[in-house]
Amino acid sequence: MKIGIVGYKGRMGKEIRDLFEEKSHEFVWGYDKDGEYFQKNPQIIIDFSLPEVFEKTEEYVKKFNVPLIIGTTGLQEEQIEALKALAKEVPVVQSYNFSIGIQLFLKMVDILKDKIDGWDVEIVETHHRFKKDKPSGTAKMIKESLNKDVPISSLRLGNVAGDHVLYMANLGEVLSISHRALSRRAFAEGVLKSAKFVINKKNGYFTFTDVI
Ligand SMILES: NC(=O)C1=CN([C@@H]2O[C@H](COP(=O)(O)OP(=O)(O)OC[C@H]3O[C@@H](n4cnc5c(N)ncnc54)[C@H](OP(=O)(O)O)[C@@H]3O)[C@@H](O)[C@H]2O)C=CC1
Ligand SMILES: O=C(O)C1=N[C@H](C(=O)O)C[C@H](O)C1
Questions:
Q1: ipTM of the complex
Q2: Is 179 one of the catalytic residues?
Q3: Are residues 14 and 76 in the same domain?
Q4: Per the database record, which ranges form the Dihydrodipicolinate reductase C-terminal domain (predicted)?
Q5: Gap from CA of 37 to ligand 2 centroid (Å)
Q6: What total of structural domains would you count in the chain?
Q7: Same domain for 55 and 112?
Q8: How far apart are the C-alpha atoms of 134 and 185, rounded to whole Å?
Q9: Which one-letter DSSP state was computed for residue 41?
């Protein structure tokens, strides 16, 4: 497929481009702080950038009339609503984490969440020093799955690709679920899966849970 990437010079943009090209897909369009790179019309747009770029992404998705995969974190509630509206015209896959491990993590949370009443519950997320948002989108997803207001601690350390730990404790024991992304490749693989899932759909709003 011919792909377009919003944020194509960024850490995730480069990882996604490398993986897709290794699998014989073509990078034909990009958008970044410096503007547009155009070689051909893309068949799909993938956005890993910043929330302030969202309106531009929306504009290009409408212009090319193609599916959108968006992994950008820190989106505002109105931007999620705008994505749902856009999904009436084209297919959209949105997730704050495209790794398989975090999907399994969320399934475990779903099993546990009704069994830890009265326990202390806290989330700790660790990311590289360059990350702009805090807390991480994934930590927000874990909190939402728990369906209760729990504290989130954010550490910004070196070059960590993405660690999430959910701690649960009563007076006698501590239980934890943890996930570590060893590199950005895990997220890029999820984006490729999502692209294959969405490329021939007409429209609809999907998450990475729907994809796997
Ligand atoms: N859902 C998931 O699984 C994952 C989500 N993420 C999220 O993806 C996003 C990107 O992360 P990462 O690649 O590390 O970040 P980077 O800072 O490396 O990349 C961001 C990209 O967006 C571009 N950009 C910034 N401002 C603008 C602007 N005003 N107009 C156009 N383009 C702009 C940057 O351009 P320039 O290079 O010129 O600065 C860069 O190409 C973040 O929101 C992060 O949280 C990250 C990993 C996994
Ligand atoms: O910015 C990152 O790097 C990451 N962001 C996502 C998040 O905010 O949850 C996912 C991943 O942990 C890497």
A1: 0.98
A2: no
A3: yes
A4: 101-212
A5: 25
A6: 2
A7: no
A8: 22
A9: -
